[in-house]
Amino acid sequence: MHTSTTDPTSEATPLCEPCQGIQRHWRGAPGHPELQQGKHRKEQQGKVTVTTTGYFCDRCGAHWHYTNNKADQRSGWSLAPK
Ligand SMILES: [Zn+2]
Q1: Separation of 68 CA from ligand 1 center, angstroms?
Q2: What confidence score (pLDDT) does residue 65 get?
Q3: Rounded to the nearest whole angstrom, what is the distance from the C-alpha of residue 17 to the centroid of ligand 1?
Q4: pTM for this structure?
Q5: Contact in structure between 79 and 9 (CB atoms under 8 Å)
Q6: What is the DSSP string of 1-58?
Q7: DSSP code of 60?
Q8: Exposure on the CB side of residue 46, measured as CA atoms within 13 A
Q9: Could you tell me the distance, in angstroms and rounded to a whole number, from the CA of residue 48 to the centre of ligand 1?
Q10: What is the mean pLDDT, run by run of 10 residues, along the chain of 82 residues?
Q11: C-alpha of residue 14 to centroid of ligand 1, in Å
């Protein structure tokens, strides 16, 4: 048994290839065509409005959040907490 990489998502459902290819925590990174857009909400954080959109992957069932925060380049894609 090798204990190589520690991937925090490895316990969850394995992601399909397009989902694995999504660049996380980078604002403006593209999703993939099999993501179905779900609800979105807006939140005021100080001076900026942060929009979070939920996406659901048709292929592997992954639930993503895309956070658009103009003040934070490290916003963007993240897997939704279960
Ligand atoms: Zn997927």
Answers
A1: 20
A2: 97
A3: 7
A4: 0.80
A5: yes
A6: -------TTTTSPPPPHHHHTPPBT-TT----TTEEEEEEEEEEETTEEEEEEEEEET
A7: T
A8: 4
A9: 30
A10: 55 86 97 97 94 97 96 96 76
A11: 8
